[in-house]
Amino acid sequence: MNTSLSRRQFLTRTAALGAVALAPSFPLRAAQSRGRLRRAMIIGEVKEDALKPLKEAGFEGVETTHICPEADAAKGSAVASRWA
Q: What is the number of domains present in the chain?
């Protein structure tokens, strides 16, 4: 019986054993949804003229990338709450 392995066979078997050893011992589960999915859009500064077309298109929320002081953020929050 020939017990020698080629380099390719050795690397293949070693990689397979390593993958099995590193795999988690518990079964992976899909993430549970905590409710229904909502449509949202990422926008710059929160202004009424930016929110109106999104509301008409059926978007339920916005996320801003605008970095501003807290006073401006409070104004944007007030504008967004009027369109909610």
A: 1
